[in-house]
Amino acid sequence: MSLLTLLFGEKKKTASIAKERLQLIIAREHGTDGRGADFLPALQRELIEVISKYVAVNPDDIKVQLERQDNYEVLEVNIVLPDLKS
Amino acid sequence: MGKTTTSAAFASGLALRGFKTAVIDFDVGLRNLDLIMGCERRVVYDFVNVINGEARLNQALIKDKHCENLFVLPASQTRDKEALTEEGVEAVIRELEHMGFDYVVCDSPAGIERGAIMALTFADEAIVTTNPEVSSVRDSDRILGILQSKSRRAAEGREPVKEHLLLTRYSPKRVDDGEMLSYKDVQELLRVPLIGVIPESESVLHASNQGTPAIHLKGTDVSEAYTDVVSRFLGEDRPLRFVNYDKPGLIKRLFGGK
Questions:
Q1: Nearest 5°: phi and psi at B223?
Q2: How many whole angstroms separate alpha carbon B184 and alpha carbon A38?
């Protein structure tokens, strides 16, 4: 260990950067290649249908996303309702 | 990464244990298994000749020079990948079964094209060979997905292909220094049982230079590691070796030596 790293603290090891990057990319690719969450597009479509019955929403304002954090998955549904004043 | 080296060593290991084994090169157009096995000058007919009915399987199989019950089926160097038809590959594998082969090792080419798909279609077990390196781990994850969707076992809804993970070119020192993904990291990412870790070693180059599968280089770490892999594949318990780095002591550092 050189004097510089002692003074300025250790730089992040590249192996742990590699692991973090792989965790993200593998989780994302599992979402798109048919393994795991392949129901997302259908879910999004049906949500739009149901919500459209009650509120006039723009299909682009409904976002469905699946995220993986450590050992659990988070299903995030984001619906932007139209401005009431208009 | 290390697929052909591994296929050659693994098939030889099975043969050394007394199993009648065939190893098939699926890399049509870029064959190399013949070179690694040291039988390149004895290739007359190849896998594609057999599929097209231009030669009998008996004529194309090359008897290995190191092992009594090991045979090599080389790929064609001149045709393209489309020459491998599913029916043709299936017929060859069935015929090998009829000839009394215990194991057929399919050496897959890189990528996810026809050769690779054909190599995994009829698999009962798969050894996914990975380097502790980002692109290799990602590709392995992809191939694992394909294995579970495109194999015959998957298509027929039978029990899935049994997967094994093999790490090659592993450097315990670089792992220790935080420069390389550890085998535990890779296993956690891919979630496939580990069948072995092959250390990075100069002997792999020595082996390929001479056309001798690395498992025959007695006394080397690589040979021992591949022997362990074969034992684990056959269901025996073998502790993981060559994964820990021992810091050299003062004397060793002063006087060198390995």
A1: -60, -45
A2: 29
Whole-number Å distance between alpha carbons of B74 and B56: 13
3-state SS assignment for residue B14:
helix
Q: How many CB pairs under 8 A join A and B?
A: 43
In A, which residues are within 8 Å of B185 by CB distance?
Answer: 15, 19
* Residue of B134, B145, B180 with shortest CB distance to A33: B145
Contact criterion met (CB < 8 Å) for B175 and A15? yes
* Cα separation values, B129 from B34, B88, B174, Å: 19, 26, 19
- Judged by CB atoms closer than 8 Å, whether chains meet at B179 and A13 is answered as yes
Q: Which among B42, B210, B218, B230 has a CA at the least distance from the CA of B127?
A: B230
Global ipTM: 0.81
Tens-binned pLDDT, residue by residue, of chain B (258 aa): 689 999 999 999 999 999 999 999 999 999 999 999 999 999 999 999 999 999 999 999 999 999 999 999 999 988 877 889 999 999 999 999 999 999 999 999 998 889 999 999 999 999 999 999 999 999 999 999 999 889 999 999 999 999 999 999 999 999 999 999 999 999 999 999 999 999 999 999 999 999 999 999 999 999 999 999 999 999 999 999 999 998 877 777 777 655
Q: Please count the other Cβ atoms lying within 10 Å of the Cβ belonging to residue A27.
A: 17
A18/B134 touch (CB, cutoff 8 Å), yes or no: yes
